[in-house]
Amino acid sequence: xxxxxxxxxxxxxxxxxxxxxxxxxxxxxxxxEILAEIGTWVGIAxxxxxxxxxxxxxxxxALELDPTxxxxxxxxxxxxxxxxxxxxxxxxxxMRELAAEARELIGHRPVTFEWIPRAENAxxxxxxxxxxxxxxxFGL
Length: 140
Prior knowledge:
Elements: E1 4-14, E2 18-28, E3 34-45, H1 47-65, E4 70-75, H2 78-84, H3 93-106, E5 111-115, H4 122-134
Parallel strand pairs: 1-4, 4-5
Antiparallel strand pairs: 1-2, 2-3
Helix pairs in contact: 1-3
């Protein structure tokens, strides 16, 4: 197996639905070094859809860096964590589509999901807000 990564992801919407963006960063789990920062302009969407988009983009970048890496996804969205862990059903069609995209990326790789308090997710939150402010993606 390759390295281990931590993906921190967040998303937000101003209006819910409204102007939406997501942020994610990829860190080396051993050193804590930030390897990638991604802000994604989501367009007009709900907060939950933006949260999912952040998680998907973080996973995508981590797997580009090392397709064999073990990944811990940390988010302050209990909904996304519980749904991706298989404990809660996904009813919303847009979120179901994004969850399927994430599962396709993950395949049989070792990926786990962990809920963290909002205060511990400030870096991903800042990236999401920057994407919303700019109205376009960066770091992709």
